TrEMBL record:
This is Sugar transferase. Signal peptide: none annotated. InterPro entries: Bact_transf. Belongs to the bacterial sugar transferase family. Transmembrane segments: none annotated. Residues 2-176 form the Bacterial sugar transferase domain. Keywords: Transferase. It holds the Pfam family Bac_transf. GO terms for molecular function: phosphotransferase activity, for other substituted phosphate groups. PANTHER family: COLANIC BIOSYNTHESIS UDP-GLUCOSE LIPID CARRIER TRANSFERASE, UNDECAPRENYL-PHOSPHATE GALACTOSE PHOSPHOTRANSFERASE.
Length: 201
């Protein structure tokens, strides 16, 4: 039932939002250059790697030694707008259609985090990741990593069709209110370095 729901939602979203996707792609090409969409390897169900697709929101500016400049420098006002409206997430509808992720589920994070999770935190990979999830509608990037993971595991233990509907409805509200987009003092969310004093996976 969940997979059927994912296919219907992703197809409907791609059709209904196709004008928005097209205009966003054109503006990104002119304002930020190519590639319009970037892909990054993330862990999916049971930690199996896949490539997630997102619209780019940053430039490729580098310093004199060739190292990439910090996110705060490379994130443009246009990129901030894309993130504020969650338009950068739209290409992930293709990931949902492919079966890499679901519409609802714990957000797919970085591969490098896999070895940093505690056994309890690692349970977030017992289900397919999602475009939005319980942690996203209860704080998103404004809460700590530990709080996020607790919410993710709570979702794993309590997931249901009706909970997914609630999360979907709450996500629409959060997008319109532009809540929790970034962590205090950061343009995005600082990297997870592990839970202090906790036994790792």
């Amino acid at each position: 039932m969940k997979r059927f729901f994912d296919i219907v939602c992703s197809l409907s979203g791609l059709i209904i939002l196709s004008p928005v996707i097209l205009v966003s792609a054109i503006l990104i090409r002119f304002k930020l250059g190519s590639p319009i969409v970037f892909k990054q390897q993330r862990p999916g169900l049971h930690g199996k790697p896949f490539f997630v697709y997102k619209f780019r929101t940053m430039t490729d500016e580098r310093d004199s030694s060739g190292a990439m400049l910090p996110d705060a420098v490379r994130l443009t006002k246009f990129g901030q707008l894309l993130r504020k409206l969650s338009l950068d997430e739209l290409p992930q509808l293709f990931n949902v259609l492919k079966g890499d992720i679901s519409v609802i589920g714990p957000r797919p994070l970085l591969m490098e985090y896999l070895d940093l999770y505690t056994p309890e935190q690692a349970r977030r990979h017992e289900v397919r990741p999602g475009i939005t999830g319980w942690a996203q509608v209860n704080g998103r990037n404004a809460i700590s990593w530990e709080e996020k993971f607790k919410l993710d595991v709570w979702y794993v233990d309590n997931r249901s069709f009706w909970l997914d509907m609630k999360i979907l409805f709450m996500t629409v509200q959060k997008v319109f209110r532009s809540e929790g987009i970034s962590q205090t003092g950061h343009v995005t969310m600082e990297k997870f370095t592990g839970t202090k004093g906790a036994e790792k996976k």
